[in-house]
Each structure stands twice: as structure tokens, then as C-alpha cells.
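During the reporting period the student researcher (J.K.) took over the structure-prediction task from the postdoctoral fellow and processed the backlog of single-chain submissions. One of the processed entries is reproduced below for the supervisory committee.
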Amino acid sequence: MPSPTASEIASPMTAQPIDNIRNFSIVAHIDHGKSTLADRLIQKTGAVADRDMVEQVLDNMEIERERGITIKAQTVRLEYRAQDGRTYILNLMDTPGHVDFAYEVSRSLAACEGSLLVVDASQGVEAQTLANVYHAIDANHEIVPVLNKIDLPAAEPDRVKEQIEEVIGIDASDAVPISAKTGLNIEGVLEAIVQRLPPPKGDRSAPLKALLVDSWYDPYLGVVVLVRIVDGVLRKGNRIRMLGTGAAYDVDRIGVFRPKMTEVEELGPGEVGFLTASIKEVADTRVGDTITDDRKPTATPLPGFKPVQPVVFCGLFPVDAADFESLRAAMGKLRLNDASFTYEMETSAALGFGFRCGFLGLLHLEIIQERLEREFNLDLISTAPSVVYKLTMSDGEQRELHNPADMPDVMKIETIEEPWIRATILTPDEYLGGVLKLCQDRRGVQIDLNYVGRRAMVVYDLPLNEVVFDFYDRLKSISKGYASFDYHISDYREGDLVKMSILVNGEPVDALSMLVHRARAESRGRAMCEKLKDLIPQHLFQIPVQAAIGGKIIARETIRALRKDVTAKCYGGDISRKRKLLEKQKEGKKRMRQFGKVEIPQEAFIAALKMDS
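J.K. obtained the following C-alpha cells:
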């Protein structure tokens, strides 16, 4: 969020009657028009002047605008004069649609009482429509269905209404038909919000109790904390305490986003706003914590959120070792604004110093890597993504394994458990065979298969290890982009997993080692060896590239030696002279093979790690 300038900080506003407040979020699948609808609501209520209006007002990261996706949930306060003559305060939370950012969605929903469920009138219900609406139902939200893109020739509002009722099980007979792009019937959405969504509940005279929804770092203000007031009143100058960490602070300023930061004197029950209190570290403001008055604290904390659990890990290393300190500083800054990103230092014999990073999924990994490269001007190599395995040792000790290179001796391991996911895939009927084959190839277990209108909905249990490589890309290519995919971690299951090492000239390359299922080890190993054979340049001696499980070689390729013609200067003469030179060359090659160093270029690592056939 940008810092406020003096001209932007408006005059103080008075507290609002709680019955005139509506807190709501917009949930939908990717590209169904959440951010566009948010733009139209902001425009219709006059929060932003027409001359200042840009597309995706709330997506203020360059990468969000480029990719056309929302990564960070954003909030804005709107004022709307309804047909009944009352002026309502609407607090809107725009949430991401992608599965990797489901944590952002669940945080935003906890601060609201209702949701607008946006469904594309031409595409209908998609996998992540289901996932996000279930989040809203779990949060006890009142849900208003909104059919977007009804101006498209392919729109079928009646069919989509039936689909919503059939698949999600909520009444869609009075769904609001709109076109967020053209602004058609936006008034209808605003009326539905004030008439059909419940006002918040709260007691003004009770001790202060507020939910910490989000926090980010601002270079001018320190940590900015987004709060939802449940009970009591928050005023400037109050001394507040975080119940989770026990830390106490004096509030410097309180305000709301409209969408620019605007200062107010106080925030009452049901209101959503921000506070700053000269907090230095984002780590001090734990998302989901309860904020209360230091002198008169509340007796019971709010339930909060489960702490975020990274599911995919990979190593990030600078291409130039001299950039290590710059990478450390860049990661520290990025961590300030993304609580779900974790990292710790690690070293690799092949790649030098770097960091082991935890992410919520592959898109999250891609976004973080792109932000590091773009915003901090770094060149990075990422190792193969891996998941968290649970090891039970022979002596009964439980361990977590984040990096396959750190795997202990197999003789000391009793069992290895890997994470499994419950995946929901919606696909047009003609691609169903290819999708089922893809899931079977990835060791999937079919749970359910039924039809939603003209599309098949398949539910599979899959090992996360098989999904993190390129499952999503393969699914999109099989279905020509029409399939949609959503998943959540279900449990850990014991598996026949082995550590596969890659040896180059007899030396293990730690950056390329991976845990694979025994049944797939040989094909994965052969593919990796074939790839490296083409990527590693020839040397003056022959180089074997091998894949091994323990001491057993399961695949091998040989990089032929560069031939130097040592007999070029022998014109005619005795054959024994040539033979002597060739023998000498043979001895030299043998010796070189023993002591020669194989140079593996960085490009070879990058290309090899992208592989998954």
C-alpha cells in the first residue's frame, strides 16, 4: 500500500451506526471478473474520480497487473446511498482466485459477514468457484450469487443458475445478472449487498476486541496493520496489546482505505480499517492475533487462523556467488509483506550458498522468484521443487525432511510418509479420458466422478510429490486449457519412496537428488540422464552420467570424449610410432578421468531442473 500524502489524509469521520455497515468479500474462480466488479463498485460509489480510474484499482503490484491475477487481498471502504434513503458503509475485500493464495482468501473471509459469489455466465461453475465458496460457507457467510459476463453471446444464465443450485446447493433463483466490464446492473449488486447481507454484530461498550487481518511494511509508517473491530472502540492514542505475542504499542494513527489511506478519529464495532503504532517488524504482528486494550483487556481471544503451512520447498541460489548478500536482503524485504513465504540458509556443493524456501504452491514459487529477479535485479537458479516428507526412524524418532540431499541413511529409517492431496478437476467430456490417464499415471486414486451439466467433475487423491512438477501444465495441454483444477492437502500416507542420486563422473550432484516412488525411479532417472547427456559439454575424457538408488545404478548415459588427433604429424613411417602416441594418449585420458574436474554449466542445472517428461 502506498503511504498517504498530507493532501490525501482527509478530515476525521464520525463513527457509523452498526446497522448501516456491510462487510463483504468477492469470491470466484480465476478470470471470472472479481477485480473488474470491484472496479465498477468503486466507480459507482464515487470512491475514485473517473479521471483517476484505472483497471484493477486494487491490484497495485506490477506483476498482478501484468498477469491479470490478484495475489494480495485488498480492502476498500465505500459509501453508498441506497434506494431506502439510508447511507451505508460498505467494506469490500477483493480476494485472489488461485489455489496457491487460498490462505489470503480465508483471512479476508474471517473479517466479513457475507460474500458475493461471482460466476461467469458462459463458463459456469469451476473448480476454484467450489473451493472458495466452501471457504465462505465454512465462515458462516450469507452468499449472494452474481452472474457476470451476461453480455457475451455464449452466456447461458438459466443453465448456470441451475448449475449453482445443483453443484453448490445454494438458491440462485434471484442471482444478480451483470456485466462488470460494461457496468450493466451494478446498482442491482449494491442493492443486493445492503438488502440481503447481514450487518455485523458488536458491543460498543465492551472491552476492545479486534481481529488482525493482515499486516505489511511501509518504509515511512513502519508496519501497517489491517484490523476488523469486533467489540469496543479503537481510538488514536490508545495503548493496545497483541494477545498472541503480549507486545504493547501506542496507536499513532487510525484510518480506512477509500482506496487511498484516509485518517479517522476512531473505529467502532463492525468497521474495517488500519492502524500504525511505530511497529518495526511484521513478525511482531501475527495474522489472526487478537488486539485488545492494554489497560482493560478482553477476557477471551478470537479464534484466529491456523498458521500457514508451506507445502512446496525449493532452493534459490544466486547465479553469481557475489550476489548472496543482495539475495539475503531481498528475501528479508519480501518476507515483510508475505507472511506465507519462509526461508532458511543452505549450502550446496554444486551451487554454493543460497536459501531453502517454502511456498504454498508452484504459482507462489514462480511469483516470488519473479519478484526477486524483477524488483531486486537478481539472477537466480531454483532447484527441483520438493515437498515435506515425514520420516519415522528405527529408534521411534519423528523427523521432517525438506531437502532430499539431507536424507539420512536408509538403514536407520523405518517408514517414509508423503503428503497427499484431494484434487477436484472439472473438464469438458471429450478430454475426460486424457485427464483420467494423467491422474492414473501420477499414482492417483479415483474418489468420485459425476457430471455438472455438460462437464465431468473428477475427484482424485494424488501424492503432492507427483503434482508439484508439471501436473498443472500437463492438465492444461491435455484439455486445451478448458480443465480447471483445485486441491487441498488431505493427509500423509506411507509410500515406497527412494532417494535417487545423480552421479556425474562418479561424483554425486546434490542439487539434482530427489525422492521418487520406486516404481517411477527408473523412468525418471533415465530421462534425467538423457537430458544431462545433451546439456553437459564434452571434455577431453569420457564422462559417465548415472542415476543411482543407494549403491545400485538404475540408468546410465555416456558423454563421449573430445578426440584430439595426436597422430596428425606422423606422415608415413613405422606404425609403432603411431601406436606409441595413441597408448600415451590413452594413459593420459585414464589419468584425466581420475583427476579431471567436470564443469557443469549453470544453464545445465536450470534446464535439468525444469525437466519432467
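The committee noted the following: DSSP finds 14 helices and 32 strands in the chain.
J.K. will present the remaining backlog at the next meeting.
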